[in-house]
């Protein structure tokens, strides 16, 4: 097995003396979370069997498993490999892991770039990479290594509890450019937006309790689509997978905070479901104690400025119920213009349809 050099990493064959580090890497909670086939706990004996049997079996099936090593010290940093080779299609699947002692150093990205370039230059024409919906870190690695998000593979990975987990599919072809594709929704500058009064930050797994309280308010349920109380699982998935949605360019969920106290006071979201016409939609909700203070207007203004400055969105829309005068005032103060009254646009309670007043904001409106 030839060594492959990358930026700050070297891919080499696994050795017997890698067993201790391999066991430590695979026994890490994050590794066990996203690699459910691994035994738990993962012992040195398991690692020795992996090196003696699994590495050899993968090679016999046309794949290859490499150790990711420090090029200076030869320390084991992780592992990467290609398997599930389909010779007729000239395709294979690539996977990787990095030990907790080597994370946040660009190790996975460098290793994936090096192996992908090597594999696509030696006979393979298509590489697939599957990541869990709850693993945005791995998705960022794939995107940084010029893999393109292709879709969702339902039930692709058996979980530890007997269920099957959906996986996000990324691919890279032999003819693809080596530079990552620009994202439809980039990260916020510095991770947040603020005007000194309100602060917007991405929704995350730690926001479950707050979002549960907010989304179960009767007035918030009534304006939701559909107007049904969300289940606990739906809220958990929304928090855990908010970054995945953002990376996929479909949705940016943010928490509105009091910029002084840091208290979460509401949420605001951008829904980019029509990139072909460059139209996106915003929606927001506020906790009762913070209404009437102009905070959602500030949040809508902050989000709108970021949208027009950092994305290719040309037209931003928002809707309000005909009797929701307060929400309509928020949009008007934020610079939106009333554009249409849409009859029976949304699903309403008891199987009925609800009318919607639509507002629109263009970039030039912010200059008025």
UniProtKB/TrEMBL annotation:
One Pfam family, short name: Acetyltransf_3
N-acetyltransferase domain mapped to chain residues: 9-175, 198-364
SUPFAM superfamilies tied to this protein: Acyl-CoA N-acyltransferases (Nat)
UniProt-listed InterPro entries: Acyl_CoA_acyltransferase, GNAT_dom, Ribosomal_N-acetyltransferase
TM spans (from-to): none
Annotated protein name in UniProt: GNAT family N-acetyltransferase
């Amino acid at each position: 097995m030839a060594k492959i050099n990358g930026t700050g990493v070297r891919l080499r064959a696994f050795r017997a003396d890698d067993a201790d580090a391999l066991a430590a890497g695979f026994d890490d909670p994050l590794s066990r979370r996203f690699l459910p086939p691994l035994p738990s706990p993962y012992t040195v004996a398991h690692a020795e069997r992996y090196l003696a049997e699994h590495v050899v079996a993968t090679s016999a099936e046309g794949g290859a498993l490499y150790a990711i090593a420090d090029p200076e010290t030869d320390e084991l940093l992780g592992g990467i490999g290609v398997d599930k080779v389909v010779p007729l299609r000239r395709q294979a699947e690539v996977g990787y892991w990095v030990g907790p002692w080597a994370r946040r150093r660009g190790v996975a990205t460098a290793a994936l770039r090096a192996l992908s370039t090597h594999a696509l230059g030696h006979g393979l024409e298509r590489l697939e990479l599957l990541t869990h919906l709850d693993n945005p870190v791995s998705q960022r690695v794939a995107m940084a290594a010029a893999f393109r998000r292709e879709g969702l593979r339902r039930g692709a990975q058996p979980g530890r509890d007997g269920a099957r987990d959906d996986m996000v599919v990324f691919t890279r072809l032999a003819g693809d450019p080596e530079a990552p594709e620009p994202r439809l929704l980039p990260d916020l500058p510095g991770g947040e937006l603020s005007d000194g009064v309100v602060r917007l930050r991405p929704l995350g797994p730690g926001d479950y309790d707050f979002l549960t309280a907010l989304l179960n308010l009767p007035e918030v349920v009534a304006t939701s689509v559909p107007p049904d109380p969300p289940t606990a699982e739906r809220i958990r998935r929304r928090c855990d997978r908010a970054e995945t949605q953002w990376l996929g360019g479909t949705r940016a969920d943010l928490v509105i905070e009091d910029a002084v106290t840091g208290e979460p006071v509401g949420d605001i979201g951008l829904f980019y479901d029509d990139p072909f016409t460059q139209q996106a939609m915003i929606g927001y909700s506020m906790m009762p104690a913070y209404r009437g203070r102009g905070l959602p207007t500030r949040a809508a203004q902050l989000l709108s400025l970021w949208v027009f400055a950092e994305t290719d969105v040309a037209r931003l829309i928002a809707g309000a119920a005909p009797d929701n005068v307060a929400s309509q005032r928020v949009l008007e103060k934020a610079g939106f213009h009333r554009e249409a009254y849409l009859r029976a646009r949304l699903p309403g309670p008891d199987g009925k349809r609800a009318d919607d007043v639509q507002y629109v904001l263009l970039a030039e409106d912010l200059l008025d």
